[in-house]
Q: What sequence folds into this?
């Protein structure tokens, strides 16, 4: 009994202390180790250099949008588009969204051929894993579905960035995602394609105190800020891996 | 071996090493169950393929055979089966108790946590909208929240244990071979038990029974039969080489830059290292670990009686209670860490405090047991079931 009391007291004390602390001002740089450069986005590179345009299709589920009014406007795909426009001036950037909620990887893999045919993207950003974890899809099956979708993207000649789950500390004990994250890491390594390690990046932000991802806030401010940072980090990864650094593009033009 | 009166190969004295390692395994399971915990870096799953679960299940099989094998030999099939089933029932009750605590935590999170960033992840709590179905599925052991998978596995293993033990006492090698066949068939034919709302059991009983039965087989004379093999230098060398290999591979999980040193064909063959179905690589890793341990830590090692190791041994002797306590403490600790956005210091403090609570409780249970044992009112118990707190 004493230990229960002790724990409850600790909770009360620590909780009080945490509540008094202000949220730190967000400055969301990502260390280079979390933004890989070795997986070249060759199609993206030629597209910008030859045609001065970049068509991106974002395929994903609920964590690629935000709920609420103007959810899509403040979610990372729109902010990625904005960041790329800013950083690649003079190029036409278009991001198309395919993010119905509750899509499993199997659903998305099945839908990809049509998306590829309609959008003709140079780059697909494929966010996956969360819904599969929610549904308890077997990791082996998850891998098969990923492979199927990635084959379709490769056949269409588009580049791809696979995006893993969000780091969500409050649901970590209820939603087991590590097996799916492992599969995604392994699949990207096997195929030599890019992984946008959203899980690792958000974990880093949480560890560094950049975002309090435990926060029980029901406001949109932090969620929007996180999405903005994800959009920016994605833009950096695309620019790095597509070798699109501003100077080079200007000299080629 | 004669079928009529099987010789009893059970070792007479309790092997304290089992209690020691089961105690340590319980601590590690506790630590591993707190997701954001810096102390996790010290648990064995970061240094090889197998983890504390393998140790726990193997030793549970060993002790189950040790305790109930004797009963079955002396008092017959019916009585020993009744005792095994009673034990399974106790574990079932313990599991449901833990489930209740877990539900309370989840309900709290659902009621207070409403961050729009995690609208998708929070769908995991949708089951709260259908408590009738959820609770019923939990009672059927089909709905199991994360980290609550070990006890249901244990229950199924015990339910299957009476006939297994019956064969083990007469034809131990036949029983072990049968177990291996079931394991192979489970892999071949994708056998597993269904889970709710979908999917299968996280610990596939048809696969994990191999470790449990192997533990039982070792307790019933198998360990002696293996002694010669375990003394061989070649076996030792192979075991150490394999442990080093596994260590090297796990390093590549933690330092992604090392990944490129894993050849593609090796990864293709090796991954995923399946915990659900007790991957052969995990099983082999456990065997290697056990072989090395047995070699360097004889059962008569005087250190086992030293005061430093008593806390772990005590915990191992009350495994069910301490396991449940550990799961509860992991919930509670994780809750505190989440509520306070706690850093490494708090995580360490909670980890240490949790283990201290586990030790204190184990001591309390030993004391309680001692008092009960001495009481003149208590009936004289049969000598088999209570060997040094010998719970299966």
A:
């Amino acid at each position: 009994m004493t230990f229960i009391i002790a724990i409850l007291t600790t909770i009360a004390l620590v909780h009080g202390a945490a509540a008094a602390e202000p949220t730190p001002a967000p400055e969301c740089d990502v260390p280079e180790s979390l933004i890989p450069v070795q997986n070249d986005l060759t199609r993206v590179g030629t597209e910008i250099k030859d045609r001065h345009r970049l068509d991106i299709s974002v395929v994903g589920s609920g964590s690629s949008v935000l709920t609420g009014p103007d959810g899509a406007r403040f979610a990372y795909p729109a902010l990625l588009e904005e960041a790329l426009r800013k950083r690649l001036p003079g190029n036409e950037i278009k991001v198309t969204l395919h993010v119905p909620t509750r899509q499993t990887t199997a659903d998305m893999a099945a839908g990809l051929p049509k998306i590829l045919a309609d959008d003709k993207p140079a780059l697909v950003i494929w966010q996956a894993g969360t819904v599969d974890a929610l549904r308890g899809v077997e990791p082996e099956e998850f891998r098969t579905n990923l492979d199927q979708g990635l084959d379709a993207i490769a056949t269409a000649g588009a580049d791809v960035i696979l995006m893993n789950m969000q780091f969500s500390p409050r649901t970590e004990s209820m939603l087991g995602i590590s097996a799916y994250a492992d599969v995604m890491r392994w699949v990207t390594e096997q195929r030599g394609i890019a992984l946008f390690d959203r899980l690792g990046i958000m974990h880093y932000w949480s560890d560094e105190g950049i975002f309090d991802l435990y926060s029980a806030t029901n406001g949109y401010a932090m969620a929007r800020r996180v999405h903005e940072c994800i959009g920016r980090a994605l833009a950096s990864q695309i620019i790095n891996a597509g070798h699109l650094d501003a100077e080079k593009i200007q000299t080629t033009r | 071996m004669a079928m009529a009166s099987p010789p009893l190969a059970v070792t007479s004295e309790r092997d304290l090493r089992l209690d020691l390692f089961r105690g340590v395994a319980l601590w590690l399971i506790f630590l591993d169950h707190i997701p954001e915990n810096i102390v996790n870096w010290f648990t064995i799953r970061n240094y090889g393929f197998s983890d504390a679960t393998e140790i726990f299940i193997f030793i549970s099989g060993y002790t189950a055979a040790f305790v109930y094998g004797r009963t079955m030999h002396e008092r017959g099939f019916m009585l020993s089966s009744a005792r095994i089933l009673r034990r399974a029932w106790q574990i079932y009750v313990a599991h449901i108790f833990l489930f209740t605590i877990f539900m309370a935590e989840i309900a709290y999170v659902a009621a207070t946590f409403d961050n729009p960033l995690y609208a998708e992840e929070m769908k995991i709590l949708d089951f709260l909208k259908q408590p009738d179905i959820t609770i019923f599925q939990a009672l059927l052991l089909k709905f199991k929240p994360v980290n609550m998978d070990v006890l249901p596995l244990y229950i199924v293993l015990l339910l299957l244990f009476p006939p297994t033990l019956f064969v083990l006492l007469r034809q131990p090698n036949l029983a072990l071979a049968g177990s291996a066949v079931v394991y192979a068939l489970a892999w071949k034919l994708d056998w597993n038990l269904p889970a709710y709302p979908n999917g299968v059991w996280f610990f596939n009983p048809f696969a994990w029974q191999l470790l449990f039965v192997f533990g039982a087989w070792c307790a019933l004379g198998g360990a002696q039969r293996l002694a010669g093999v375990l003394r061989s230098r070649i076996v030792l060398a192979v075991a150490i080489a394999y442990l080093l290999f596994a260590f090297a591979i796990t390093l590549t999980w933690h330092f992604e830059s090392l990944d490129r040193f894993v050849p593609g064909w090796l990864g293709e063959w090796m991954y995923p290292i399946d915990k659900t179905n007790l991957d052969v690589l995990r099983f082999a890793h456990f065997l290697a670990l056990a072989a090395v341990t047995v070699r360097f830590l004889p059962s008569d090692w005087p250190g086992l009686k030293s005061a430093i190791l008593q806390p772990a041994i005590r915990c191992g002797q009350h495994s069910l209670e301490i396991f449940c306590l550990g799961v509860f403490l992991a919930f509670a600790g994780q809750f505190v860490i989440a509520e306070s956005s706690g850093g490494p210091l708090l995580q360490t403090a909670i980890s240490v405090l949790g283990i201290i609570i586990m030790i204190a409780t184990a001591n309390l249970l030993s004391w309680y047991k001692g008092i009960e044992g001495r009481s003149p009112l208590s009936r004289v118990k049969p000598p088999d079931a209570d060997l040094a707190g010998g719970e299966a």
